[in-house]
Amino acid sequence: MSHIGKLLPFLFLIVATAITYAQVPEQDNRCLDCHSNSTQLAALTEQSERFHIPSDFKEQSVHNEINCTGCHADPGGYPHPEVVGLIQCGSCHENESTEYLSGPHGNPFAVSLDLAPKCGDCHNVHLIRRTSNVLSNVHVKNEAKTCTQCHGNEDQKNNILNITNRVDYDMPNRTIKKGIHFLDLKISDNSNPLTCSRCHGVHALSEKIGKNWQSNYSIEADFCGECHTSETISFKRNLHFTQEISSLSGNISLTCTDCHQEHLISNDKYQYNEEKSAGQMTGKCIECHQSVRISRTFAQNVRGNSPTVDSYHGATNIGGDLFFSDCSSCHGIHELNSYTGKDKESVKFSIIAQCGSCHPNAAANFVSSPVHMAQGELLDSEESIARYFFLALIVTMISLIVLSIIGDFYKLYLRKKN
Amino acid sequence: MSSETPKRYIRFQKPVVIQHYILMLSVLGLMFSGYMLYSLKSAETGIDPVGYFSYSSWEQIHIWFGILLGLTILWHFLYILFTLYGHSDFLHILPNKNDLKSLIGLGFKRSMIKKERFGLQEKITYWIIGVYLILMVITGLLQYANVYTANYISRTLYIYIDGFHGIYGFLMGVILTVWHLYSIFLKPGRFPGTLSWWDGKISKAEMNRYQDVKGEIMDDSDTGRGSQG
């Protein structure tokens, strides 16, 4: 091989470097001399990774027309001053900056500046890709991962908890991805999943539900109703929505996420919570309905942990059967068939019809049975009498056995004596 | 010294032994599956039967054992109605004047007991077990057709049906089983028990116990040397 042939790879490298170099402005080349060279950076600073910039970053960055000094103040020669100058994204992205500063991430009154996520934490610092680019941190497919860098991080958990006082802001990425809105292709066609920003907004994080729902819970129902229209219409007529319940944080009514959760919304009819098991619906209802105050308000006595668990319905419910009756089977879900305040006759006919949907031959006498197993004092006394009757029967039987055993041994004694 | 096999005499015919096996199996199966169903409805038992079967599955198991028990009870009725042995057994187990005298004498007068095939205590045990099993089958059927039952009977009665077929029925079943086992194996004079439940045959000693009793069924076909004593 000739000398030229041996030098060909090096010539090719020189030419390629020259072409790459020529694509960036002269001043940027000066910056990249050091900042794209890991070895040199490592010799100069302990934070070499932080200051490293790939030499070709501009090819992929949306900011490829902007020089380094477009964002950074000119640092002059090396060594640079301690503070080169704060990056001011807002000088170009004014609206986004204003929104960000008004939202929980940017509001200095809401968060500690040290902890607050900055633009680069989501968008990346130098390699800022378009949001439509599937490699972008804020592309819909990567959004959950980006948000859960903090919201799913154990180290950040306490920080977030201290600032927000809400545990549900700690949400691992895998949890979000289990939810139907993220996964269901019918909803999201997998290229546009219903991910964080669709509900929470982008920079202000309060355009849609975000924090506003706390002051006006109809915002959340309206938001969900954009897709779930019929459910929302039914729900808005529902006692749960129309009747406010006094709580420590003021008068509130229930809204979608109180039952469905915020992030892990399942497609399974019987899975309303994280755990996939039958009976979660009942479990969800009794979270509130085992409260004595609510029971009294709605003239409904419940016993133990569940109003139905002692019944056949309750037993099949916890017994793992896939076909079972839970609260929603009789009361409905969003429309909520409430019997409170209705006259006895109409309630009776409604209940006969309701029971008849599963028990076609159910008649008036059938539905006169207490629904939640313990509705009043009368039943308790009836049950008590029956209980004492059976206990007396059992005691009698045991006494009879004991007497017969004593008799047997007494006869044995008499036989031996004679 | 004789090396002959000890003589064993047929006490129960093969169909009787087979029905007893089926009865044992169905009662044990019903008690077990019934307790599993109860466990599902009550947290008190500390058992988690859901790990094995769902409520419906336990229910199906319970129903099939119930059918087995129902068939055994039907066999008893047919046995009593259509066989000589059945007639005889049933007539012997019916309460009579001697039982009253025996009850007054608290069963301690040996002469009175010896005249009967079944003693007072045995009669009481069998009658209680019989009535208990029939009631369990009836209440079970009523619970199976619970919609119809609830349509036509009062809630109070349903509570008693539910209670009898529920945990109280289970406890009664356990007590009766213990009583029955005591009568067969542990009772003075019977200890260490008989193997008649296993092959329907009894030993010479056991046979002698019945020899005075009128209408005793024995058959020497087993050894060829057996006799009615």
Beta-sheet strand percentage of chain A? Answer: under 5%
Radius of gyration of chain B, Cα only, in angstroms?
21 Å
Architecture per CATH nomenclature, i.e. the level-2 architecture of chain B? Up-down Bundle
Largest sheet composition of chain A:
2 strands, antiparallel
Give helix and strand order of chain A, one letter per element, not per position: HHHHHHHHHHHHHHHHHEEHHHHHHHH
How many separate helices of chain A? Answer: 25
Strand runs of chain A, count = 2
CATH topology of chain B: the name is: Fumarate Reductase Cytochrome B subunit
Shape, principal axes of CA atoms of chain A? elongated
Return Rg of chain A in Å. 35 Å
Q: Helix content range of the residues of chain A, please?
A: 40-55%
The largest contact between protein chains, plus residue counts on each side, is:
A-B, 44 and 43 residues
Q: Can you characterise this structure?
A:
The complex is a heterodimer of chains A (418) and B (229). Chain A has 4 domains: 1-55, no CATH class; 59-66 and 98-207, no CATH class; 213-267, no CATH class; 269-387, no CATH class. Chain A has a two-stranded antiparallel ribbon with strand order 1-2. Chain A has helices at 3-23, 26-35, 38-44, 48-51, 57-60, 68-71, 94-102, 119-123, 140-151, 154-164, 173-178, 180-183, 185-188, 196-200, 218-225, 229-236, 239-242, 256-260, 280-289, 292-297, 312-318, 327-331, 344-356, 364-367, 377-417, and strands spanning 245-247, 250-252. Mean pLDDT of chain A is 71; it is low at 269-278, 301-308 and 374-378. In chain A, helix 15 (218-225) runs antiparallel to helix 16. With 418 residues, chain A is mainly alpha-helical. The relative contact order of chain A is 0.04. Chain A contains 25 helices and 2 strands. Chain A is 52% helix and 1% strand. Chain B has 229 residues and is mainly α. Chain B has one domain: Fumarate Reductase Cytochrome B subunit. Chain B has helices at residues 14-41, 55-82, 84-93, 97-104, 110-114, 120-144, 146-152, 155-165, 167-186, 196-199, 204-210; strands at 8-10, 201-203. Chain B has a two-stranded antiparallel ribbon. Chain B is globular. Residues 212-229 of chain B have low confidence and may be disordered.
